[in-house]
Amino acid sequence: MADITLNQAKLNEGVAFTKTAGAASQTLDMSAISDFQTIILLENGDAADCRVKFSTNGYGASNADDIDVDIAAGEFAVIQVESMYVKDPSTGKATFQILDQDDTAFSGTVANVLVSATQISRGFAV
């Protein structure tokens, strides 16, 4: 399981996206984040369609559905998640998987799905 680097950005400023090759399962360390929204940019550079599935194991999310986003081959997707909804309270990490659209193991090359995550603050330290 790989950790995705969380980029930090301030509102009304820019930030370069750091892309990371996808893995079957990866985590996003959100332990230093309170209840902030995070933007996940995904680029499916593979020839196969994929699904990105975020586990909803955060505070109060035990009865909520997981977040599933289907991405066609060669397309991009943006997912906006609240840290408190997806991060595990015991680890401070959000876990997501790259799968086929029927929730089975990805039949393409998972490293061809590039991931970038950015948390946007209003200019104060987090």
Describe it:
By secondary structure, the protein is mainly beta. It has one domain (2-121): Jelly Rolls (Sandwich), CATH 2.60.120. Helix content is 3%, strand content 44%. The chain contains 1 helix and 10 strands. The strands form 2 sheets. It has a 5-stranded mixed β-sheet with strand order 1-4-9-6-7, with no helix packed on it.
Task: List the keywords.
126 residues, mainly beta, Jelly Rolls, single chain, 1 helix
CATH fold assignment = Jelly Rolls
- Low-pLDDT sequence parts: none
Series of H and E elements: EEEEEEEEHEE
Choose one word for the global shape: globular
Mean pLDDT: 85
N→C terminal distance: 25 Å
| Whole-number tally of structural domains | 1
Strand order of the largest sheet: 1-4-9-6-7
How many E strands? Answer: 10
- How much of the sequence lies in strands comes to 35-45%
Helix and strand arrangement:
Elements lengths: L1 E3 L1 E5 L9 E2 L3 E5 L7 E8 L5 E5 L12 E5 L4 E7 H4 L6 E7 L13 E9 L5
Parallel strand pairs: 1-4, 2-10
Antiparallel strand pairs: 3-10, 4-9, 5-8, 5-10, 6-7, 6-9
Quick rundown:
With 126 residues, the chain is mainly beta. It has one domain (2-121): Sandwich (Jelly Rolls), CATH 2.60.120.
